[in-house]
Design goal:
The complex is a heterodimer of chains A (114) and B (108). By secondary structure, chain A is mainly beta. Chain A has no helices and 11 strands. Chain B contains no helices and 11 strands. In chain B, β9 and β10 form a beta hairpin. The chains are: A mainly beta (114), B mainly beta (108). Chains A and B meet through β4, β5, β9 and β10 of A and β6 and β10 of B.
């Protein structure tokens, strides 16, 4: 079974631009979560989507948004990029919500904002 | 907000020595806790969860509600155990709250 894939793997953007990251979950998984990983703040939850609906959102500004498509693929968008948005963005998929379902992580997209 | 604390950023041991990676959580009800591991150049993956009470790769973790801890232990460390280890707590809405991580280095 193919794992979670994320595209692109690396991205360099300029302050003020916007960016879209993509995540393809494992086949059959309907829940997709996004995390931001930085050296200073560690791994922080951004949001979670299930069946095209955002079910939960972390403590991030409105510049961070996402969506999920009918095939469970998910995208996250960051508008008006700031230097502090430089991070590794991870997505994780699981069959459904609930702690009994393992979350499988993708390799991440490394975003650098200059 | 739920908190997960890993007090050690780096833990260095010799091969064959016992290992204990510490994890403490803020008390609230019945926590559901996990250990995730990230080996060099690999993705983050689940190592074990407290509810399953199993041993994975020789690692075990016991939930101590009195001390609000979920320390990860292995009696004899191997070089291949060198990795980043994250303690995480499950929250409603399929959200994981992670600790800051501990880098384990096992020296030959």
């Amino acid at each position: 079974k193919a794992g979670v894939t994320q595209t692109p793997r690396y991205l360099i953007k300029t302050r003020g631009q916007q960016v879209t990251l993509s995540c393809s979950p494992i086949s059959g998984h309907r829940s997709v979560s996004w995390y931001q990983q930085t050296p200073g703040q560690g791994l922080q939850f951004l949001f979670e989507y299930f069946s095209e609906t955002q079910r939960n959102k972390g403590n991030f500004p409105g510049r961070f948004s996402g969506r999920q498509f009918s095939n469970s693929r998910s995208e996250m968008n960051v508008s008006t990029l700031e230097l502090g948005d430089s991070a590794l963005y991870l997505c994780a998929s699981s069959i459904s919500g609930g702690s009994s379902y393992e979350q499988y992580f993708g390799p991440g997209t490394r975003l650098t904002v200059t | 907000a739920q908190r997960v604390t890993q007090p050690e950023k780096l833990l260095s041991v010799f091969k064959g020595a016992p290992v204990e990676l510490k994890c403490n959580y803020s008390y609230s009800g019945s926590p559901e806790l996990f250990w995730y591991v990230q080996y060099s150049r690999q993705r983050l993956q689940l190592l074990l969860r407290h509810i399953s009470r199993e041993s994975i790769k020789g690692f075990t973790a016991d939930l101590n509600k009195g001390e609000t801890s979920f320390h990860l232990k292995k009696p004899f460390a191997q070089e291949e155990d060198s990795a980043m280890y994250y303690c995480a707590r499950y929250n409603a809405g399929n959200m994981l709250t992670f600790g800051g991580g501990t880098r384990l280095m096992v020296k030959p």
